[in-house]
Amino acid sequence: IEEVRENRVRILKEIEERQKKWREVTEKMLDDINVRYKQLMRRLQAVGECRLVNNHDIEEAGLEIYVGFKGAVPQRLDPYTHSGGERSSSVMAFLLALQQNIISPFRAVDEFDLHMDPQNKEAVSEFIVSTMEGTKDQYMAITPSQITFKGQDVHIVMIHKSENVSVPRIVEE
């Protein structure tokens, strides 16, 4: 019985140490992401922040994104408070900030701009290009819109559907 008690105490201590390490690593990564996220949100004339909630319990932990557009006080991102374009822009800014912590030679996003106004479409396309600068990574953005991706070494392949046939066309910027 004494050996079982000692093992239990040892295991509980190890779990506590692992949870502490998880919190430290997660909070450090979130601090890094928040710096980039806030910079991207400023380019949208908005403010934002990502917060870790329930960090005392790994199984209950989560992430909340707070945003404020046009001078509004940041509120938790949700479909009732924010427009579709605000949600899309905020999520893209978060994903691009997060992706800087993930090693991947290839990234893709599909119809990211569907609910965005022209100004935010242009801003987010600039985000995509700027986050790729200085890397050899590749990014594929699939969109039904006419968006310009400006930058050095940006190559665009446009595919238009004509008479039920997809026709690719390479556009050099």
Distance between the termini: 74 Å
Placed side by side, the strands forming the largest sheet appear as 1-2-3
Name the overall outline: elongated
Could you tell me the number of beta strands? 7
**H/I helix tally:** 3
**Radius of gyration from CA coordinates:** 21 Å
Largest sheet: 3 strands, antiparallel
Low-confidence stretches at least 5 residues in length (pLDDT < 50)? none
Order of helices and strands: HEEEHEHEEE
Query: Pairing-aware structural class of the strands and helices?
Result: alpha+beta
**Beta strand %:** 25-35%
Mean pLDDT: 85
Q: What helical percentage do the residues reach?
A: 40-55%
Overview of the molecule:
- The protein is α+β, with helices and mostly antiparallel strands and 173 residues long.
- The N and C termini lie far apart (74 Å).
- Helix 1 crosses helix 2 and helix 2 runs parallel beside helix 3.
- Helices cover 42% and strands 25% of the residues.
- The strands form three sheets. A three-stranded antiparallel sheet has the order 1-2-3.
